[in-house]
Fold this sequence. Notes:
22 strands; 3 helices; mainly beta; single chain; seven-stranded mixed β-sheet; elongated
Amino acid sequence: MKHLSKKLRRPxxxxxxxxxLVGAAAAANAKRTMDVTYRDIKMVVDGVEVVPxxxxxxxxxxxxxxxxxxxxxxxxxxxxxxxxxxDWDGSTNTVYIGSKTKSTPYQVNNGTTYNSDPSxxxxxxxxxxxxxxxxxxxxxxxxxxxxxxxxxxxxxxxNTTGHETMTFTIGHVGDLQRNxxxxxxxxTVSFKSYELKWDGSPQTITIPLGGxxxxxxxxxxxxVPNADLFSSNxxxxxxxxxxxYDIVLN
Length: 250
């Protein structure tokens, strides 16, 4: 039978969280010892009890350091409970919870953003994504520029101050077989365009920023004959949808 409280003296690596994350990965670090107490500590997240586990799926029991009264919880268990990936970089002794890159402000027009909600995904080439942006664009031959324009572009604007490059992958979303063009501008100055094919493979694009404070991305759909842009049903069924994901700013 397991006792309610038990005390142990155990070695603790300087990067304590790394021990619970990868076991022996921190063995080369300087070590010290401390007295700890196990009290069958339970972890409850939003009213639901969670059993912390290591990378192999084995349960890990939280413990209390006697000297400070600090409760130590396994990082991977916390990350899983919060629905965030956890990774360990042994070369820098860094634990990553969630994205490895800082969230960068951006705004989207004629599009939908996705932010790590597992219930909301978009699919590119058979793979579902929970992080990224899906842009919508439609243009029609029915209307002239003096009668409301020919349509609209899906647009994303990223703040890139302090970064040197922006990398992302883009691919077709949905069943509508519509090609499009991707236009990229740095600080409102045209930089480059890419042709997007609805049946093509996703493209990974890296943009050298050259000190630009922002990157604007426009999705421009090929024109559809006589589509009624004032009808939401007609507009949606003639749109091009392309998803942007794996967005990294360095």
